Queue: 2 jobs
Job 1
Amino acid sequence: MNGYTLFLAVTDRTGRPRPAYALTTFAVETRRLDEAEERAGAALADLPPGADWTGLAPSVRREVVDRVRTVPHYAVDHTEHDRAPERSASPLADCLRSLAAGGPLAGIAAAPRTVYVTGGLPVGDAESAPLLADARAVHPDAEAHFPALARLTALLATAAAPSADNAVPDDEDLYDAFDRYALGGLA
């Protein structure tokens, strides 16, 4: 059985009218992890540190989309959580349950996997949620292990909102670089 490596970018968006969290997940077959890291590094080499997708010029976005197409991946998913607090004890756990139950990552929910978290937010009470609870290992410091893939996942997190809103043309949509992806919410 083949294993997978998942990169999670957790984004706290509690500044919105309703508390909201987002979880962006980039999955790679573990056997292709070194290749994916190398290609992600090359694809993002010209971007400034901490680049935000909406802050990049359209020509730069098109170039990055073209380069990112070479990064081996299994699937990409972005889930927004904006349920009312009384409906959810753990927004991050809800997102993880959703990923394990549906979308492009459901097919690997039972496969061996290692998880790397980026974004600086702790997983807290979500550590017992699917995709984390039975992972081989969960590393809270993706940047220290696979900086290019952590950076790509963080960039995907900033590209999700305009992609979901169809606010960027297809050739500037970073999610369009992937064969299997989903953008959704848990309202």
Note: The helical segments are 33-44, 58-68, 91-101, 142-145, 147-164.
Job 2
Amino acid sequence: MTVPKEDTNTMRALQGLENDSSSVRLQAALAVGTAPEPAFIGKLIERCAIESEFSVREMLTWALTRHAASVTLPVLLDEVRSERAQARSQALHTLSKIGDRRAWPAITPALVSDADDEVARSAWRAAVVLVPEGAEHELAVVLATQLGRGERATQLSLSRALIALGEAMLPTVGAATTDPDPRVRTHAIATERLWRDPDAGFEFAIEEAKRIVVLGRAGQKER
């Protein structure tokens, strides 16, 4: 019995996604995205959860975006509830790239505050892409619960997410500049400064915010 050429190509691509060589996996993901078929989706999702190479994960995400959202969304929405952190993170990342607002209900406060920083950061990015028009302020309130969290890279991700919401985030972030927690105050002040002057850079904004927190609001007014 002769195996159709299409089936042979599909098998070759699926096997390539599991190859020990990252370059082979990358080329396989590229091939899958170039000629998308529903049969690939399960394997792409599976590989996203365990792929160690960033460039390959990005190509896997691209390949998923090449498939019909009606087919990928249900599987991705299941993945955001996975016990594996990388599976949650990559599913959220892919949802942000697809940009279909039908996925919005999946961005729960639990994901926004996920204990894994990469999952939380992916949730923040997905949230600002998927948020329905008019719900930006409510999202800002949820995101602001994470102010002061983590190291610089994590804090920068949150600041960018808040700033992406536009003026809707200003009341919430402004209120956080007087939070009892100095880490929250610092992060909120830095986010405000980055909003006003994007060219200043986050490092400068954070250092200025630290100075203000140490000196107090009076020190900010004197400047």
Note: Confidence is low (pLDDT under 50) at residues 218-223.
